[in-house]
Description:
Rossmann fold
Amino acid sequence: MKIGVFDSGLGGLSILREIIKVLPDYDYVYLGDNARVPYGGRSDKVIYQFTKNAVDFLFKKNCGLIVLACNTASSMSLQRIQQEYLAKNYPDRRVLGVIKPAVEKVGELQAKRVGVIGTYATVNSKAFIREIKKVYPKAQIFQKACPLLVPIIEEGEIDWIGLKLILEKYLAPLKKKKIDSLILGCTHYGLIANKIQSIIGKDVRIITEGIETAIKLKDYLARHPEIEFKLLKNKAREFYVTDLNLRFLKMARFFLGKKFRNFKDLTFISI
Amino acid sequence: MKIGVFDSGLGGLSILREIIKVLPDYDYVYLGDNARVPYGGRSDKVIYQFTKNAVDFLFKKNCGLIVLACNTASSMSLQRIQQEYLAKNYPDRRVLGVIKPAVEKVGELQAKRVGVIGTYATVNSKAFIREIKKVYPKAQIFQKACPLLVPIIEEGEIDWIGLKLILEKYLAPLKKKKIDSLILGCTHYGLIANKIQSIIGKDVRIITEGIETAIKLKDYLARHPEIEFKLLKNKAREFYVTDLNLRFLKMARFFLGKKFRNFKDLTFISI
């Protein structure tokens, strides 16, 4: 069996890249639902439906374990997928998210005033607040939705003055709250972590999900040999997208980084 | 039979508003595919599939004539919908777009150097170039994709300095070409027409699709009594969306304008 990684678009490739750095030997299947990206502004009903479609597809592709490398899907659908869908249909398979790994880091850092930035859906779901309260109930949490960051990053406008201006606007209320750490609650944000750091201030600890998810996945497999022993280790990688166009191919290279420039062509699947 | 208006999101409501101003007596059915918005960055294959779904839905809702109030759908799918889908399945019904009305205005103005702004998909389709060449072959056309305008407008960041900066960036190459008219090739752009005018200069004629589409639809019905006589005139309005959430309800009010504040609740349909 393989490890599946799902994202609403291609931002999850940055999570996959970090996972492969830590666990290079396994076989990976990536699915990006870029025909229906972004999920961020959609209702929980629709997000659950889309996520279930994706999980179903990856199970059919022989994935024994799936990482929902999408904060919106993780925050809005993971619990229901685990409790309703898996329990009934696939009791021996696992679906994990990207929220818990970042949240556990908050506990390790013993952070007291935690900022969280993400899409509307992630922020409105209050998933980070709920999860942080479980792990580290003393922490105070301050959220801020940053809806324009994803389109700006996807446009490659990373050095544009407008990005700096909107970051100053979005981060101002968090600065005022004197946060000591900041969770980048969206896969895209890792790509502008240094810009976020320079605006929020160097004393604030930035928590990026890719690295934390990779570390926690390694721990998980060590603790669950009944899952681990079923996983193939041929270093195979498959990439599926629900829409294939030049702009997305360019973005795929951008997210995968230089090391992954020569990955095989993305495969189109109809939704 | 009713008049259907389709858009990938809610931007088409601004077109519907203009149509209702000119033709208030007819029955209208609006469909916004906001579960899968935006179409702008997607491939022609996926856009055709989504548009066909929408047309199908509106025909089932008893629409005899549909306006594709979405530039992406109009430019990528209208011709195929008319030639393949309608001809085969619904030879007595009609589907019109928003591109031709704006293009005919270019001919009326005898514009010589025409700018066109829109999404990636609209610009890459070259639909405006193709259509303008038919109507007015002497015109020179200069296109520019403006991918960040829709997310900024949908965030309501209309008075934000970043909008001015990105407009200056997007419009600079068109200013350099000394255009005499500018087609706003996206339903959203009508909402910032005055900002566009102030940056492109007061001598450039701005062509907005809503007004042109409404005028041309009135002409069309006058020329096609065989369609017109089938249309109901009870002033009924129905609104369907593929995703229902608070943010979209807020946007609906924003697009419909003050007069339409008390429209009935949007109806959710599953896609």
